[in-house]
Amino acid sequence: MVSDVSFRCEPGTVTGFLGPNGAGKTTTMRMLVGLSAPDGGHSRVLERDYHDIPNPGRHVGVLLDAAAQHPGRTGREALTISAQLMGVPTSRVDELLTLVGLDRSAAKKRVRQYSLGMRQRLGLATALLGDPQVLILDEPANGLDPEGIRWMRGLLRDFADRGGTVLLSSHLLSEVEAVADRLLIIGGGEIKADGTRDELLSGSGVLVRATDPRELENALHSAGLTATPADGGYIVEADAETVGRAALTGGVVLTHLAPTESAGLEALFFELTETPA
Amino acid sequence: MTPAISFPRLTLVELRKMVDTRAGFWLQLTTAVLTLAVVILFCVFGETQDLIFRDMFALAILPASILLPIIGILLVSSEWSQRTALITFTLVPKRMRVMGAKIAAGVVLGAIVVVLALVTAVLAIAIVDGAWTMGPKVFLQMCVLLVTALLSGIAFGAAFLNSAVAVVLYFALPLVFGIAGAIPFMDSVADWIDTTRTTTPMTEGVATGAEWARFWVSMGVWMALPLAIGLYRIARGEIRAS
Predict the structure, then answer these.
(1) ipTM for this model
(2) Best A55, A62, A69, A133 residue to mutate vs chain B (most B CBs within 10 Å)
(3) Are A200 and A190 in contact (CB under 8 A)?
(4) Could A64 and B84 be called an inter-chain contact, meaning their C-beta atoms sit closer than 8 Å?
(5) What is the pLDDT of residue A262?
């Protein structure tokens, strides 16, 4: 169940779609590619309804479920079927197998024998087969080892830097944090936060310390800022510049002024996606 | 934007899906071996007066008309049971286009089987020096039987969207109905619905108008109805893996 989920992904960026399991990431992505129909609202991919893209595989690479492959087909055969459905030459199949690191013997094996990591690579190969401008990937890092995750990050970064648009989902912040330009946090079927990493962090305030805490409190107070004592200083719900200027006006010597690391993105993620008891 | 692939090419992909899995490959190989076996056995042990072209062709086409509907079932149901529907329908979002290609692929498979069975029957009759008796109408009737059987398979696959359920019911439902035909008050209904009764006249000689009518009514029940249910489900529903 999702409601009122609105967002836009720009070319040249990687958008990380974050949320706990069951938050509605997959449902949202399924609606994007027309496998599920929303009761209301609409989505557009490349400024079109997905159903109106005549040959979507050539424009939008989709990986919704790496396990969704016929176990009785070989990896190469699965890719060949997709290549034929998109009308790309079979030579692309070999290129992609090489790109995702499935060697000759792996390509000849039936998908039944694949590990989840190998299926994930095969799924990425399917998504990239048609040389698309957009990638929509649901939990692509699932089952990849750390080396595989690093490889995938490089691949997606490179794809976005060449002007592509990436939307990738994950329930693990650490997987997305390093590659996403923008984070979209979903919880309980609603968008909870949407912005760059820095934007999201700045929302949680700054921690400020000074040589004289009493003077600092006065300075913040006269600037109209609310200060909560914490950790030998104050947490202020404002950006660093505003706090710095308040300190300057009050003639206070600051010893520390930084986003509240104690909150951190992780705490924010849990805080935003937590379902009220 | 890049245009979609043509319908004939989409049909070719569906034909490829019929043979590129283990199940598909073994099923077709079994059918071929079985066909050769029954034809050879018939040539060796059959009575001389039975060795006519029409019966030989009917025999050569029999294993395929029993076993290959499973290929039709799997062609549709495995997309759900093996979850490949997620890929198929994101690459070809027009769902009825995919289903049209699957039906076309079923007809093409039927045509291929007819040609192979014809070649087998011709060779067999030539070898045993049998009689070349076969009317074009009876030949056509047997071709219709084969193609409708394959399409029934596709229809069952579409109606149930689950390989195991569709295969079991494809064989069990008509069988149950055939048994029910033994009940007196069901007898006259079975004349129109029990496929064993409605298809028999099609292989034995030129069918009469009434016999054709019974045949098409039974196909309405076992082919058109499940196909309609299946197409409705696929067109309207979410593409979910079972």
Answers:
(1) 0.90
(2) A55
(3) no
(4) no
(5) 47
Domains annotated for chain A, with CATH where assigned, are 14-197 (3.40.50.300), 205-259 (no CATH)
Reported as a single tens digit per residue, the pLDDT across A30-88 is: 999 999 988 888 899 999 999 999 999 999 999 999 989 999 999 999 999 999 999 99
Residue A263 has pLDDT above 70, yes or no: no
Residue B78 at interface with chain A, using a CB cutoff of 8 Å? yes
Contact call for residues A182 and A16 (beta carbons, < 8 A): yes
Q: Nearest C-alpha of chain A: how many angstroms from B92? A: 7
Q: What is the mean pLDDT of residues A108-122?
A: 95
Is the CB of residue B242 less than 8 Å away from at least one CB of chain A? Answer: no
Among the partner residues B5, B85, B90, nearest to A33 by beta-carbon distance = B90
- What pLDDT sits at residue A67? 87
A contacts of B91 (beta carbons < 8 Å): 56-57, 82, 85-86
Contacts of A192 (CB under 8 A, 6+ apart): A185, A186, A272, A273
Buried b (16+ CB within 10 A) or exposed e, B49-84: eebbbbbbbbbbbbbbbebbbbbbbbbbbbbbbbbb
**What's the distance, CA B234 to chain centroid?**
21
Residues facing residue B131 across a β-bridge: B52
What is the pLDDT at residue B152?
97
Neighbours of B206 (CB within 10 A): 13
Q: Give the nearest chain B residue to A58 (CA atoms).
A: B2
d(CA B219, CA B200): 13
| Helix, strand, coil fractions of chain B, as percent rounded to 5 | 85, 0, 15
The pLDDT confidence band at residue A235, using thresholds 50, 70 and 90, is confident
From chain A, the residues in CB contact with B7 under 8 A are none
